[in-house]
Amino acid sequence: xxxxxxxVDYASSDTRCSIRxxxxxxxxxxxxxxxxxxxxxxxxxxxxxxxxxxxxxxNYNVEKYERMIFEAKEEISRLQKVLATYQEELEKAKNNKxxxxxxxxxxxxxxx
Length: 112
Prior knowledge:
The chain is an alpha+beta fold and 112 residues long. It contains two helices and four strands, in the order E-E-E-H-E-H. It has helices at residues 37-46, 55-100; strands at 4-9, 16-23, 26-33, 50-52. The chain has a four-stranded mixed β-sheet with strand order 3-2-1-4, covered by helices on one side. Strand 2 (16-23) and strand 3 form a beta hairpin. The mean pLDDT is 90.
């Protein structure tokens, strides 16, 4: 049985990617524009090729999302502190308003 696989090297460059095909240990390298990678990969799948992945690519995705989750948790923590500060300031403002509501200056803008 013939073995047909392909692997995408997304890190080739910003504008071009490499797709390597392996048919019974005959390896070919094809450079294509990055914007066409999905179309080309789907065509290979339609021709019976199995997509295989670079370990570094899979690791990169895991690390990327772990980093994004860590950063999001840090941002949530920071925003919770900001929210707590705003809530404290709101309570202070309400208390100040309540304490001083009998001492309102309503004559400041009056002219003689």
